[in-house]
Amino acid sequence: MKTKSALLLLLALGLSLTRCNNIIHDLVPWDAPHPNPTVTTIGPQSLPVVAGTPGSANYAVTTTGITGAKTVTLEWFSDTAGVTPAAPPPGVNFQSPVTFSTDPATPAYLTLTTTAATPYDVYYFRVVVGDLPNVGSLTSVGVGQLQVDTPLPVFKAAVVDGVSLVIEITEPVTGTPDPSDFTVSGIAGNPSVTTVLVNGATITLTLSSPAAFGENNITVTYIRNADSAKHLLDADDNFTESFVNKPVTNNTGVPKRVLNINPQVGTISARVTGSAKFGVYTQGITGGKTVTIEWFSNASGTIPGGVPVDVSIVSPVSFVATPTDITLTTTNATPDGKYFFKVSV
């Protein structure tokens, strides 16, 4: 009887061990490593985006275990580490869903677009991928950077008088470009540029031979030097864009005179500090010039007098484009009245 019971017990234990082995065998595949789906890196911004104009920048997003079309959202931060949350920048959009490749070596591309309402600044973001089975939304490990830059300096106008050719740029720049970065056409003898002087928003070229009166198809070209040390840069280190065959006004031999003065822009209250701008049209006048005012007591400017109290002019004035703004300032001592003036340059 005892022998029979022992056999039954051993048989039962054998069956249990067999079942345990079967259970362990069945669990082995689930113990194999399965990496969690993750956004691993966000690539650098592909192109600069300029404030005040629509633009776009691409980012290569590398992932692990994410395939197919997934809903993507962004979390915005005010710091590069992605610690301090921030409001989304105005006018920034992107296309979602994003299709993630089955090949882990092939990144997906996220395109951020900006509008004219997106201000100059640097913004930081993380990518959040949704619609992942059994996982939920995952925030990227890396932090992306969207830099919205200030507008690039570009050509505005140019004037030549003899051997002096003055180029006006849309904002002040600094730099030491080579004379060979500039070429001028439309002048007899095809003069070369011998010197370049950069002063704020004006660039003065000295030509090897002068323009002549009546040469009215003169153009100037600037090709940005391959050496970055010779670029023309604004205060935000944006380089001046190359420009080709821009028209040059030829003032060589033209009589230099003030042609017209536009009406006052806005009114000034008596006995307060204020300022008024006037657009002054000139002919043959370029560069920084000292400006003075002659006062008259009548609108036709025939009777000298009528000098206002504490009115002054901001001088010198840089004459390049037409018209050029001049500014008159008043103080709290300037009484009520109308005053008439002529401009002397």
Order of helices and strands: HEEEEEEEEEEEEEEEEEEEEEEEEEEE
Number of strands: 27
Distance between the termini: 133 Å
Which residues form runs of ≥5 with pLDDT under 50?
13-34
Strand content: 35-45%
Radius of gyration: 36 Å
Structural class: mainly beta
> Total number of helical segments?
1
Q: Please give the share of residues in helix.
A: under 10%
- Main beta sheet strand tally, sense and closure: 5 strands, mixed
Average pLDDT level: 83
Please tell me what the overall shape is. Answer: flat
Structural descriptors:
single chain, 345 residues, mainly beta, 5-stranded mixed sheet, 27 strands, 9% helix
Plain-language structure description:
With 345 residues, the chain is mainly beta. Helices cover 9% and strands 39% of the residues. It is built from one helix and 27 strands. It has one helix at residues 2-31; strands spanning 38-42, 49-50, 55-64, 68-70, 72-77, 93-94, 98-100, 108-114, 121-129, 138-139, 144-149, 155-161, 164-169, 182-185, 193-199, 202-207, 219-222, 243-247, 249-250, 257-261, 274-283, 287-289, 292-296, 312-313, 317-319, 324-330, 340-344. The strands form eight sheets. Strands 2, 5, 9, 10 and 11 form a five-stranded mixed beta sheet that branches. A five-stranded mixed beta sheet has the order 15-16-13-12-19, with no helix packed on it. The protein is flat and about 90 Å long.
Topology record:
Elements: H1 2-31, E1 38-42, E2 49-50, E3 55-64, E4 68-70, E5 72-77, E6 93-94, E7 98-100, E8 108-114, E9 121-129, E10 138-139, E11 144-149, E12 155-161, E13 164-169, E14 182-185, E15 193-199, E16 202-207, E17 219-222, E18 243-247, E19 249-250, E20 257-261, E21 274-283, E22 287-289, E23 292-296, E24 312-313, E25 317-319, E26 324-330, E27 340-344
Parallel strand pairs: 2-11, 12-19
Antiparallel strand pairs: 1-3, 3-8, 4-7, 5-9, 6-8, 9-10, 9-11, 12-13, 13-16, 14-17, 15-16, 17-18, 20-21, 21-26, 22-25, 23-27, 24-26
